[in-house]
Amino acid sequence: MRRTFALGALLVAAGLAQAQSTGPIRLLVGFPAGAGTDALARTIADKLKDELGAPVVVENRAGAGGQIAAQYLKTAPADGHVFFVSHDHTISILPAVTKNAGFNPAADFTPVAGIATFSNVLAVSGGTPAKTIQEYVQWVKTKKDGKDSIGVPAPGSIPVFLTQLIGKKYGIDVQAAPYRGGAPLLADMMGNQIAAGIAGVPDLMELQRTGKVRVVAAIGAKRDPLLPQVPTFTELGFDNLDDYPWYGVFAPVGTPQPVIDKFSAALQKVLAQPETKKKLVDMGLHVNYEPQGQFAGRVRSYTQTWERIIKDSGFQPQ
Q: What is the model's pTM?
């Protein structure tokens, strides 16, 4: 009986692998073409097709910070043809700041593997004399009204809560100013329309290189190798800001384990390729493949940390 069962399991796995190879594999992205998540997905899709032996296409279902794509993933068939390339905001933050997100990551999705990590950072524009966070704080305190706005890419995002933590830590009156994405925020920073902003390193990297903005603090347990001169919020005395934001892949719950294992192994090979790695590093990412169990643990821990921060902030889900 055991032999019959084992043979049956092998046949099922073989059948799933064959079925997966007969049609295109779709990588859902919750943001528009050209955005950071889209660029990441297209970089790995181009290489995954060779490893998986099937076409791999990126499908943009943009809107609401990835919420539309996540809702679609919940209803997608769990047959190994649909995967979701997402960063931490959609999975860990949206359900905590939205009354009815329309999906429950823990119940509706299966973590597949981690791709990369990055830092969220505080940067100041050329319109301020500040070169450190302490100088920025002093600059705010000496302004005529003693107040400042810190630009953030979206309402209800991690930068909103970082703004609140900065104000509390240093005793300054700073308010988050939500934008509709990172691009308009960065445009206003370059034009000195806003003195400071919080965004991901991938958004700010080129502006930092050219000196158009100055990054003064970063999330992470240790200094970002891409910004070795920039102190971490942890160094500066902030609590619970050790974990890096992340990018990873998810599948509909119920996707067969052999299919997940096959995709994860292919992703690991792709991320080890020097060409792929260089492209992602140039985007401001730290390539950090994590197998299913390790990635699931990262997501769980990160989500719990930010759920506490959001709850302690007094933020009311909208």
A: 0.88
